[in-house]
Amino acid sequence: MMPSTTDRALSTPLKVLLYGLLGVVSLIVVLTVVSFVFELVWGLIGLLFGIVSLAATIGVLAALGYAVYWLASTVIGGDDETASATDVSQARGTDAAGTTGADGPDPVERLSERYANGEIAEAELERRLERVLDDPSADDATAEFERERELN
């Protein structure tokens, strides 16, 4: 059986109303999703700018801190490199007994330390030791070292 014209007439406004309502709901859903995506993108861009701003602020503060350190060390004159070099030269100027030699550390000790640190090879050590030991200005410690070397 076929629907009557009245049934068709009544159903057309309902269909229009139903499709209209469906269209409005679809539009709201699409606009909500698009809005969410834009807010997410803008939030990520804001976060990125925040991180860049934080990094720039930390960099500027570090540069200012270093400038203050450099200025203070220049004005005061307490340069770390000068202090370390002075400490090292004073430490090398003492022998095993803790006394300071007139012309610095013993050449034999220096050569032995350089060999122990791997700075020179054994052949180079022997060549330089012979040169040092042949020097007439060698002191008693050098002569003692030579005697020990001959025994070994």
From TrEMBL:
Residues 83-109, 132-152 are annotated as: Disordered. The keyword Membrane applies. Signal peptide: none annotated. Residues 93-105 have a biased composition (Low complexity). The keyword 4Fe-4S does not apply. Keywords: Membrane, Transmembrane, Transmembrane helix. It comes from the Archaea. Residues 83-92 have a biased composition (Polar residues). The chain crosses the membrane at residues 16-38, 44-69. This is SHOCT domain-containing protein. The lineage of its organism: Archaea, Methanobacteriati, Methanobacteriota, Stenosarchaea group, Halobacteria.
